[in-house]
Write a structure and sequence with these properties.
Length: 303
Protein backbone atom coordinates (compact mmCIF):
# COMPACT_ATOMS: atom_id res chain seq x y z
CA UNK A 1 0.00 0.00 0.00
CA UNK A 2 3.02 2.29 0.01
CA UNK A 3 2.15 3.81 -3.37
CA UNK A 4 -1.24 4.90 -1.97
CA UNK A 5 0.48 7.43 0.29
CA UNK A 6 2.29 8.90 -2.71
CA UNK A 7 -1.09 9.82 -4.19
CA UNK A 8 -2.79 11.54 -1.26
CA UNK A 9 0.10 12.16 1.16
CA UNK A 10 -0.04 13.84 3.63
CA UNK A 11 -3.86 14.00 3.72
CA UNK A 12 -4.51 10.40 4.68
CA UNK A 13 -4.17 8.66 8.04
CA UNK A 14 -3.67 4.90 7.85
CA UNK A 15 -3.79 2.15 10.46
CA UNK A 16 -3.72 -1.43 9.12
CA UNK A 17 -6.64 -1.57 6.65
CA UNK A 18 -8.32 1.60 7.94
CA UNK A 19 -7.76 4.73 5.86
CA UNK A 20 -9.07 8.16 6.87
CA UNK A 21 -8.89 11.20 4.63
CA UNK A 22 -8.63 14.59 6.30
CA UNK A 23 -8.38 18.24 5.29
CA UNK A 24 -7.94 21.53 7.17
CA UNK A 25 -8.96 25.03 6.21
CA UNK A 26 -10.86 28.01 7.58
CA UNK A 27 -13.29 27.50 4.68
CA UNK A 28 -15.78 24.61 4.81
CA UNK A 29 -16.04 24.65 1.02
CA UNK A 30 -12.28 24.22 0.62
CA UNK A 31 -12.33 21.30 3.06
CA UNK A 32 -15.17 19.65 1.13
CA UNK A 33 -13.41 20.18 -2.21
CA UNK A 34 -10.12 18.76 -0.91
CA UNK A 35 -11.85 15.70 0.58
CA UNK A 36 -13.72 14.99 -2.65
CA UNK A 37 -10.59 15.28 -4.82
CA UNK A 38 -8.53 13.09 -2.47
CA UNK A 39 -11.38 10.55 -2.26
CA UNK A 40 -11.44 10.37 -6.06
CA UNK A 41 -7.72 9.52 -6.08
CA UNK A 42 -8.22 6.95 -3.33
CA UNK A 43 -11.10 5.24 -5.16
CA UNK A 44 -9.09 5.16 -8.36
CA UNK A 45 -6.20 3.50 -6.54
CA UNK A 46 -8.59 0.93 -5.06
CA UNK A 47 -10.06 0.15 -8.47
CA UNK A 48 -6.58 -0.30 -9.96
CA UNK A 49 -5.68 -2.73 -7.14
CA UNK A 50 -8.88 -4.82 -7.23
CA UNK A 51 -10.35 -3.29 -4.07
CA UNK A 52 -13.92 -2.11 -3.66
CA UNK A 53 -14.97 0.73 -1.40
CA UNK A 54 -18.02 0.39 0.84
CA UNK A 55 -19.89 3.73 0.94
CA UNK A 56 -21.97 2.52 3.91
CA UNK A 57 -18.79 2.55 6.00
CA UNK A 58 -17.82 6.08 4.97
CA UNK A 59 -18.57 9.02 7.28
CA UNK A 60 -18.05 12.75 7.23
CA UNK A 61 -17.10 14.71 10.34
CA UNK A 62 -16.73 18.47 10.04
CA UNK A 63 -16.11 21.04 12.75
CA UNK A 64 -19.53 22.41 11.89
CA UNK A 65 -22.92 21.68 13.43
CA UNK A 66 -24.77 21.82 10.09
CA UNK A 67 -25.88 18.23 9.36
CA UNK A 68 -27.01 19.27 5.87
CA UNK A 69 -23.40 19.64 4.75
CA UNK A 70 -22.17 16.74 2.63
CA UNK A 71 -19.51 15.52 0.22
CA UNK A 72 -20.15 13.65 -3.01
CA UNK A 73 -17.97 10.56 -3.27
CA UNK A 74 -18.33 8.59 -6.49
CA UNK A 75 -22.02 9.47 -6.75
CA UNK A 76 -22.77 8.83 -3.07
CA UNK A 77 -23.83 11.73 -0.88
CA UNK A 78 -22.19 11.44 2.54
CA UNK A 79 -23.67 13.84 5.09
CA UNK A 80 -22.01 15.52 8.04
CA UNK A 81 -22.22 13.79 11.43
CA UNK A 82 -21.87 15.25 14.90
CA UNK A 83 -19.81 12.19 15.93
CA UNK A 84 -18.24 9.10 14.36
CA UNK A 85 -16.47 6.03 15.72
CA UNK A 86 -12.89 5.60 14.54
CA UNK A 87 -10.66 2.73 15.70
CA UNK A 88 -12.76 2.26 18.81
CA UNK A 89 -12.90 5.96 19.77
CA UNK A 90 -16.08 8.01 19.38
CA UNK A 91 -14.93 11.39 18.06
CA UNK A 92 -17.31 14.34 18.16
CA UNK A 93 -17.08 17.44 15.99
CA UNK A 94 -16.00 19.60 18.96
CA UNK A 95 -13.38 17.13 20.23
CA UNK A 96 -14.89 17.08 23.71
CA UNK A 97 -15.20 13.24 23.79
CA UNK A 98 -18.20 13.46 26.12
CA UNK A 99 -20.10 10.78 24.22
CA UNK A 100 -17.09 8.45 24.18
CA UNK A 101 -16.45 8.75 27.92
CA UNK A 102 -20.18 8.42 28.65
CA UNK A 103 -20.17 5.14 26.73
CA UNK A 104 -17.14 3.95 28.71
CA UNK A 105 -18.97 4.76 31.96
CA UNK A 106 -22.07 2.93 30.78
CA UNK A 107 -20.12 -0.23 29.92
CA UNK A 108 -18.17 -0.09 33.18
CA UNK A 109 -21.42 0.33 35.16
CA UNK A 110 -22.95 -2.70 33.46
CA UNK A 111 -19.97 -4.84 34.39
CA UNK A 112 -19.99 -3.44 37.91
CA UNK A 113 -23.64 -4.54 38.29
CA UNK A 114 -22.62 -8.03 37.18
CA UNK A 115 -19.81 -8.04 39.76
CA UNK A 116 -22.27 -6.96 42.47
CA UNK A 117 -24.53 -9.93 41.72
CA UNK A 118 -21.76 -12.52 42.10
CA UNK A 119 -19.57 -10.77 44.68
CA UNK A 120 -20.94 -12.79 47.63
CA UNK A 121 -19.55 -15.96 46.09
CA UNK A 122 -16.02 -14.62 45.57
CA UNK A 123 -13.01 -13.78 47.72
CA UNK A 124 -11.60 -10.26 47.93
CA UNK A 125 -8.68 -11.28 45.71
CA UNK A 126 -11.01 -12.68 43.05
CA UNK A 127 -13.24 -9.59 43.12
CA UNK A 128 -10.18 -7.37 42.76
CA UNK A 129 -9.03 -9.30 39.70
CA UNK A 130 -12.48 -9.00 38.13
CA UNK A 131 -12.57 -5.26 38.87
CA UNK A 132 -9.23 -4.67 37.19
CA UNK A 133 -9.92 -6.92 34.21
CA UNK A 134 -13.47 -5.85 33.38
CA UNK A 135 -14.01 -2.41 34.94
CA UNK A 136 -10.62 -0.65 35.04
CA UNK A 137 -9.86 -1.92 31.54
CA UNK A 138 -12.78 0.04 30.11
CA UNK A 139 -10.79 3.22 30.71
CA UNK A 140 -7.42 1.88 29.58
CA UNK A 141 -7.80 2.16 25.80
CA UNK A 142 -6.24 5.27 24.22
CA UNK A 143 -6.76 7.47 27.30
CA UNK A 144 -4.57 10.27 25.95
CA UNK A 145 -7.12 10.85 23.18
CA UNK A 146 -9.99 11.61 25.59
CA UNK A 147 -8.06 12.78 28.66
CA UNK A 148 -9.46 16.35 28.47
CA UNK A 149 -13.08 15.45 29.15
CA UNK A 150 -15.38 17.42 31.45
CA UNK A 151 -15.20 17.61 35.25
CA UNK A 152 -18.69 16.12 35.47
CA UNK A 153 -17.58 13.02 33.55
CA UNK A 154 -14.50 12.78 35.76
CA UNK A 155 -16.78 12.73 38.82
CA UNK A 156 -18.87 10.05 37.13
CA UNK A 157 -15.80 7.90 36.50
CA UNK A 158 -14.72 8.32 40.12
CA UNK A 159 -18.17 7.32 41.39
CA UNK A 160 -18.02 4.09 39.36
CA UNK A 161 -14.49 3.43 40.60
CA UNK A 162 -15.53 4.11 44.20
CA UNK A 163 -18.53 1.76 43.97
CA UNK A 164 -16.31 -0.95 42.51
CA UNK A 165 -13.86 -0.63 45.41
CA UNK A 166 -16.72 -0.81 47.92
CA UNK A 167 -17.89 -4.05 46.33
CA UNK A 168 -14.39 -5.52 46.28
CA UNK A 169 -13.65 -4.73 49.94
CA UNK A 170 -17.25 -4.92 51.25
CA UNK A 171 -16.76 -1.44 52.68
CA UNK A 172 -19.62 1.06 52.75
CA UNK A 173 -17.99 3.45 55.22
CA UNK A 174 -14.51 4.47 54.05
CA UNK A 175 -13.97 7.45 51.77
CA UNK A 176 -12.84 7.08 48.17
CA UNK A 177 -9.37 8.24 49.19
CA UNK A 178 -9.08 5.58 51.90
CA UNK A 179 -10.39 2.90 49.54
CA UNK A 180 -7.71 3.82 46.99
CA UNK A 181 -5.04 3.62 49.69
CA UNK A 182 -6.31 0.22 50.77
CA UNK A 183 -6.25 -0.94 47.15
CA UNK A 184 -2.81 0.65 46.63
CA UNK A 185 -4.13 2.20 43.43
CA UNK A 186 -4.89 5.55 41.81
CA UNK A 187 -7.86 7.29 40.25
CA UNK A 188 -8.45 6.74 36.54
CA UNK A 189 -7.30 10.29 35.81
CA UNK A 190 -4.08 9.81 37.79
CA UNK A 191 -3.43 6.64 35.78
CA UNK A 192 -3.96 8.67 32.60
CA UNK A 193 -1.40 11.21 33.80
CA UNK A 194 1.02 8.34 34.43
CA UNK A 195 0.41 7.18 30.85
CA UNK A 196 1.21 10.67 29.57
CA UNK A 197 4.42 10.64 31.64
CA UNK A 198 5.46 7.42 29.90
CA UNK A 199 4.99 9.08 26.51
CA UNK A 200 7.13 12.01 27.63
CA UNK A 201 9.90 9.63 28.70
CA UNK A 202 9.78 7.98 25.27
CA UNK A 203 10.13 11.35 23.52
CA UNK A 204 13.03 12.46 25.74
CA UNK A 205 14.86 9.18 25.16
CA UNK A 206 14.17 9.00 21.41
CA UNK A 207 11.84 5.99 21.71
CA UNK A 208 8.76 7.61 20.14
CA UNK A 209 7.46 7.58 16.57
CA UNK A 210 7.84 10.80 14.60
CA UNK A 211 4.24 11.85 15.13
CA UNK A 212 4.74 11.99 18.92
CA UNK A 213 7.98 13.92 18.51
CA UNK A 214 5.98 16.49 16.54
CA UNK A 215 3.44 16.75 19.38
CA UNK A 216 6.19 17.21 21.98
CA UNK A 217 9.07 19.00 20.20
CA UNK A 218 12.33 19.17 22.11
CA UNK A 219 14.57 22.21 22.27
CA UNK A 220 17.53 22.13 19.91
CA UNK A 221 20.00 21.38 22.72
CA UNK A 222 17.94 19.64 25.44
CA UNK A 223 21.01 18.33 27.26
CA UNK A 224 21.99 21.92 28.12
CA UNK A 225 18.55 22.80 29.51
CA UNK A 226 18.46 22.64 33.30
CA UNK A 227 14.68 22.54 33.63
CA UNK A 228 12.38 22.77 30.61
CA UNK A 229 13.67 20.69 27.70
CA UNK A 230 10.50 20.96 25.61
CA UNK A 231 9.55 23.84 23.36
CA UNK A 232 6.57 25.70 24.77
CA UNK A 233 3.87 27.76 23.07
CA UNK A 234 3.72 31.39 24.10
CA UNK A 235 0.18 31.95 22.69
CA UNK A 236 -1.61 29.45 24.95
CA UNK A 237 -4.06 31.38 27.11
CA UNK A 238 -7.28 29.42 27.57
CA UNK A 239 -9.07 26.09 27.13
CA UNK A 240 -10.09 27.25 23.67
CA UNK A 241 -6.60 28.40 22.85
CA UNK A 242 -4.48 25.39 23.65
CA UNK A 243 -4.51 24.61 27.38
CA UNK A 244 -6.51 21.39 26.93
CA UNK A 245 -3.93 19.82 24.64
CA UNK A 246 -1.27 17.17 25.12
CA UNK A 247 1.41 19.48 23.70
CA UNK A 248 0.68 21.96 26.51
CA UNK A 249 0.16 19.53 29.40
CA UNK A 250 2.88 16.99 28.57
CA UNK A 251 5.90 19.26 29.23
CA UNK A 252 4.31 20.45 32.50
CA UNK A 253 3.86 16.85 33.65
CA UNK A 254 7.51 16.16 32.82
CA UNK A 255 8.55 19.01 35.12
CA UNK A 256 6.78 17.58 38.18
CA UNK A 257 8.10 14.02 37.82
CA UNK A 258 10.79 13.39 40.47
CA UNK A 259 14.34 13.39 39.11
CA UNK A 260 15.06 9.90 40.45
CA UNK A 261 12.28 8.56 38.20
CA UNK A 262 13.17 10.63 35.12
CA UNK A 263 16.82 9.56 35.30
CA UNK A 264 16.26 5.79 35.05
CA UNK A 265 18.04 4.07 32.21
CA UNK A 266 15.29 2.12 30.45
CA UNK A 267 11.58 2.29 29.69
CA UNK A 268 10.60 -0.80 31.70
CA UNK A 269 12.13 0.60 34.88
CA UNK A 270 10.47 3.95 34.22
CA UNK A 271 7.05 2.30 33.79
CA UNK A 272 7.51 0.38 37.03
CA UNK A 273 8.37 3.52 38.98
CA UNK A 274 5.87 5.86 37.35
CA UNK A 275 2.99 3.52 38.18
CA UNK A 276 3.84 4.05 41.86
CA UNK A 277 4.01 7.84 41.48
CA UNK A 278 1.07 10.01 42.50
CA UNK A 279 0.92 13.26 40.46
CA UNK A 280 -0.01 15.47 43.42
CA UNK A 281 0.92 18.74 41.67
CA UNK A 282 -0.73 18.03 38.32
CA UNK A 283 -1.55 21.41 36.71
CA UNK A 284 -4.38 20.15 34.47
CA UNK A 285 -7.92 21.50 34.66
CA UNK A 286 -9.36 18.34 36.24
CA UNK A 287 -6.85 18.43 39.09
CA UNK A 288 -7.27 22.12 39.94
CA UNK A 289 -9.60 23.15 42.73
CA UNK A 290 -12.78 24.70 41.33
CA UNK A 291 -15.31 26.74 43.33
CA UNK A 292 -18.71 27.48 41.80
CA UNK A 293 -19.04 31.18 41.08
CA UNK A 294 -15.35 31.81 41.75
CA UNK A 295 -13.49 29.64 39.26
CA UNK A 296 -10.22 27.73 39.45
CA UNK A 297 -8.06 28.25 42.52
CA UNK A 298 -4.33 28.55 41.91
CA UNK A 299 -2.29 26.81 44.61
CA UNK A 300 0.99 28.48 45.48
CA UNK A 301 3.86 26.65 43.83
CA UNK A 302 1.85 25.42 40.85
CA UNK A 303 3.15 26.12 37.35
Amino acid sequence: MCDLFLLVHPNIANYADDNTLYATSSSTQIVKSNLESDAELLLQWMANNAFKANPDKSYLLLNNMDNNLSVNINGYEIFNNDHVKLLGITIDNKLKFNKHVSNLCKKASQKLHALCRISQYMSTCQKRIIMRAFIHSQFGYCPLVWIFHSRELNRRINRIHERALRVVYSDDISSFKLLLERDKSFTIHERNIQTLAIEMFKVVNDLSPEIMKAVFPLKSNPMYCTKQIFKTKSTVRSVYNGIDTLSFLGPKIWLIIPDDIKSVGNIEEFKRKIKLWKPTKCPCRLCKIYIQGVGYIQIQGEN
